[in-house]
Specification:
Phosphatase 2c, domain 1; 6-stranded antiparallel sheet; 8 helices; 11 strands; 34% helix
């Protein structure tokens, strides 16, 4: 039975086109989506994605958009189906064993539908390599490479919190004391510009999943970002500190203020830092708000490289 005094969740988020993409004329290849669209409730799903962007991945901006749409919808339906579930061990097993495969299948179906309506051009097919006649088929697995993207998602409910990640990017949790951690283990294959992807063969095997029963002291804040954001900081410590800084601003000025300022913060990050597209989604556990540490009143202008 859920505790009526447990938190209500709220979400804000934004995605900005990278400074380097503005100079080169490339589109924003990140995407963000949450459900319900109201951005508030006892259960929420938040997803962010980062399309790969090179010539071979010519439609990765579309792939990222399809990834957040299909992931948010499928996870929202999954969460709704678990409402009142008595056996969380079965829910955990389904989240770990069934959900990654279901997410990949849903994305591939959306990609195939998009490609059937908007066939790849000769230039796009040439970038993929291989036999032209084979690639022209919308059911060919290699075609999905053009849409390659990462995906990160979190679902918060009255009973559990679920984290999933495929590829680079960051998920951070912040306690009411401002302690920042990662709920998922690192993937050692992610280094330099290498990343796992939804378009890879057997992509479901590459998902990292963490299913957590709602503890007494759950996260006050959960952050999801594409890699353009952490890459804008001088070091990891500077990036991790942003979690506690954002929590402080929410406590002192409110989530609405963070939402209003978020676009400016992210533009500062890409302009002074990575130059990449930058996306950040913020889940806040509003009824978990406690001032149990010294509050500070400061403006978060991201500690980006060169600032």
């Amino acid at each position: 039975m859920s505790d009526p005094h447990r938190s209500q969740w709220q979400v804000v988020g934004h995605s900005v086109r990278g400074a380097s993409h503005e100079r080169s004329g490339l589109p924003n290849q990140d995407a963000i989506r949450w459900l319900p669209e109201s951005g508030a409730g006892p259960s929420l799903v938040l997803a962010v994605a980062d399309g790969h962007g090179s010539a071979k991945y010519s439609r990765s901006h579309v792939g990222a958009s399809l990834a957040v749409e299909t992931t948010a919808q499928l996870m929202y339906e999954f969460v709704a189906g678990q409402t009142g579930a008595d056996n969380l061990s079965l829910t955990k097993r389904a989240a770990e064993e069934w959900l990654p495969g279901a997410l990949v299948r849903a994305w591939l179906a959306a990609v195939a539908e998009h490609a059937s309506v908007h066939p790849l051009s000769d230039v796009e097919l040439d970038a993929l390599g291989g036999n032209r006649s084979d690639l022209a088929s919308s059911i060919n697995e290699k075609l999905s490479i053009a849409y390659g993207t990462t995906i990160l998602a979190t679902a918060v409910t009255e009973s559990f919190v679920l984290y999933l990640q495929l590829g680079d990017g960051e998920i951070l949790t912040v306690t009411t004391r401002g302690e920042v951690s990662r709920p998922l283990c690192k993937d050692d294959r992610l280094f330099a510009n290498e990343t796992t992807s939804l378009c890879a063969p057997e992509a479901w095997r590459d998902f990292r999943v963490s299913f957590q029963h709602r503890p007494q002291m759950e996260p006050a804040l959960i952050l999801l970002s594409t890699d353009g954001y952490p890459n804008s900081f001088r070091d990891e410590a500077g990036f991790l500190k942003v979690g506690s800084d954002i929590l402080t601003i929410i406590e002192t000025e409110g989530l609405q203020k963070v939402g209003q300022d978020l676009e400016g913060w992210l533009k500062d990050s890409t302009n002074a830092g990575s130059g990449d597209d930058v996306t950040l989604g913020i889940l806040w556990s509003s009824q978990e708000f406690q001032v149990d540490r010294m509050t500070i009143h400061e403006t978060i202008r991201v500690n980006a490289k060169g600032s």
